[in-house]
Amino acid sequence: MVPLSHYLGLSAVLFVLGAAGFILRRNIITVFMCIELMLNGANLAFMAFSRFLGKLDGQLFVFFVIVVAAAEAAVGLAIIIALHRNRESLDIEDVDSMKL
Amino acid sequence: MRLEILLPLMLLPPLAGAALNGILGRRFSQGLVSLIACGCAGLSMLVALLTAWIYSAAGTSLEPFAHRYFTWIEAGDLTVAGALYYDRLTLIMTLTVTVVAFLIHLYSRGYMEHEGGYYRFFCYLNLFLFMMLTLVTAANYPLMFVGWEGVGLCSYLLIGFYFRRQSASDAGKKAFIVTRIGDAGFTVGVALLFWTFHSLDFETLFARIGALAPGELQGTLTAIGLLMFLGAAGKSAQLPLYVWLPDAMEGPTPVSALIHAATMVTAGVYLVARSSILFAHAPQALAVVGAVGCLTAIFAATIALTQNDLKRMLAYSTISQLGYMFLGCGAGVFAAGIFHLMTHAFFKSLLFLAAGSVMHAMSGELDMRKMGGLRHKLKITHATFLIATLAISGVPLFAGFFSKDEILAGAYEGPLGRPWLFWVGTFTAGLTAFYMFRGLCLTFWGESRVEPETARHLHESSSKMTAPLMVLAFFSIVAGYVSWPRALGGGEAFDQYLEPVFAPAQQALSYSHGSGAEGVSTGVLMGLSVLAALIGIGIALWWYAKATEIPGKLARQFHAVYEILVHKYYVDEFYNWLIVHPLGALSEKFLWRVVDEGAIDNVLVNGTGRASAGVGGVLRRIQSGNIRSYAAWVLLGAVAWLWFVVATH
Question: Which of B619, B626, B629, B633 to mutate to test the interface with A (most CBs of A within 10 A)?
């Protein structure tokens, strides 16, 4: 068996990569892909615990996460399209008008 | 008619009149305003007369009557009732106050006719009457203090009646502030009284004080007595708190007559008389009262010698006569002090009202150097002024003689009488006669020094004003007859009448002091005081009616003395230097600039604003609009939370 710690390590790596990319990348689409990456990292952790504890609760929760991720991706892409129409740019630095 | 109904019935009409005139008076005609005001004052007077009659007829007028109407304060140990008290002293006071007040209300109808603020004047005058009656009928010290403060308020309002004139508004403030100093003493005295005896109700309190052994609680009682006298000294213009009264002449003349001659300034004397049992058990305090009264009497009389303003001279005369009243109480002959209070109310208010009549005729001029020979045009005013002058000078058969003589006799042989009190008092009587006749001569007799412009308008006042003058003149003669001196074979009925009121005090004093100096008969004392008066009158007539160049020569010869007297011993300047300017400087430079503007405005109020703005300025940089920084903060927060959860497990 692959030990649990390996799964959790991979999950952590995925999450951190997603977080880092989310903060560091400029393209909005790339930021969204990083969000998905973070979600999948979490999913992996849930699945691993579900397998190793022998309960189905984790897998059930993964379903929820996937559904939410899908909905969120849809909404987010809609926002991006609207933004692109107004600003002609996909740079996240250009979306900065919500400030004092 | 039950007394407990009559007493409020005496107090309430002036209050109602004040309310009515105050709220709606602006729309009333002058006739309606004066009808309401004089009507209420007259009603009060009639009820006072009725009360006096019923109280005396009941045959129990030896006992005081008291009635609780409602409980006013209830706080732990302290219970103060809204209660009124009526005994023979109250009877004298209410009659004097209401009669004089009513006459002055009538006089004011004529006097204030062409001044502005007619309804306001009568509103304040009625309010004053209500407050004064509350003062004299109160059954406990707090209620008396309500009246005390109330008359002080009305005094301020009426002195500053012509408030657009700077000097008038300043005078009002001065009166209120100086009497406030006295009031502070009064309040502390009352507090001390409660702390010692656990009651402030007259009947209970006086019984407890009376039950003390002679010499018991001396220190406390003396302290209380002195503090209360401080209050009386403020209200009744004695040394050192007299400085407001001359300035109070800025008010309309009826105000000077009512408040600053006959009634409010006598409140201090009433306080001392009412608290006679307290002072009797604290003879040292009483001795101070007598000494201060005597010194004030001569001090003010010396100033009055050189005053050129008619009303100011009368003001100093009032201070001096009030000194006599305190001398009487202070020597232990309280009844004599009250007797003089009563006679003085009549002739002093008459003097002021006559002065007002003169002022009217002289188109507002009050400098006696610009008068003279007025008796030809102002016959009634002159006659009444002459009668009042004879009364105040202590000429036999006029009211002042009887009362002043009783005080001087008491100053010599009363329980706390001392010879020096008598001699100074008699000398002052001589001075009084002198300056009053000086005033009479300068104003009414001799050659006319009136300026032609003013002389054209000289006229006797209307009957609205002269009628009260005549009534007061009548009283200035007969009011003395209620107490024919023992030296002339009489029974001193007035003193006998007030005997039940002052008996406990007299008894207590006789334990400790017996009687004062002896050896000289009352007749001799009387003769001496009459002699002093006649000498004073004689010199005045000589210097002001015959050889009129003498005063000028003396003034030039004794230049320094004259200057000191004319400038009133520079007391006002001294007070300004000692108290007013330092306080003013402290208030402006420290309390205003440093504390108010600097500490409170700058540090607390503006500082809070600046601090908020500063912190806000820093914190708002989080809201940069940069999405990546938002994301970073969220991540940071999540990590912190996670760390927190993991680390505490």
Answer: B626
> B631 and A22: CB-CB below 8 Å?
yes
Angle, helices B267-274 vs B118-137, to 10°: value is 10
> Could you give the CA distance from residue B393 to residue A70 in angstroms, rounded to a whole number?
115
pLDDT tens per residue across span B429-478:
999 999 999 999 999 888 888 888 778 778 888 888 888 999 998 888 88
Q: Which residues of B have a CB under 8 Å from any CB of A?
A: 620, 623-628, 631-632, 635
Give B550-593 pLDDT, tens digit per residue.
888 888 888 888 888 888 888 888 988 999 899 999 988 888 88
Size of interface A-B (CB pairs under 8 A): 25
Taking residues A75-97, what's their average pLDDT? Answer: 89
Determine the pLDDT at residue A20.
Answer: 94
How many Cα neighbours within 13 Å face the side chain of B110?
A: 21
Q: What is the pLDDT of residues B281-314, one digit of tens each?
A: 888 899 999 999 999 999 999 999 989 999 999 9
> Which structure tokens are listed for B424?
């100074």
Location of structure tokens 């402290």: B586
3-state helix, strand, coil in chain B (%, to 5): 75, 5, 20
pTM of the full structure: 0.82
| Phi, psi torsion values for B86, nearest 5 degrees | -140, 115
CA–CA dist A87, B450 (Å, integer): 99
Contact (CB, 8 A) for B152 and B58: no
Listing DSSP states for B12-57 in one string gives HHHHHHHHHHHHHGGGS-HHHHHHHHHHHHHHHHHHHHHHHHHHHH
> How far are the Cα atoms of B71, B132, B133, B436 from residue B11, in angstroms, in the given order?
18, 9, 6, 36
Amino acid at B330: G
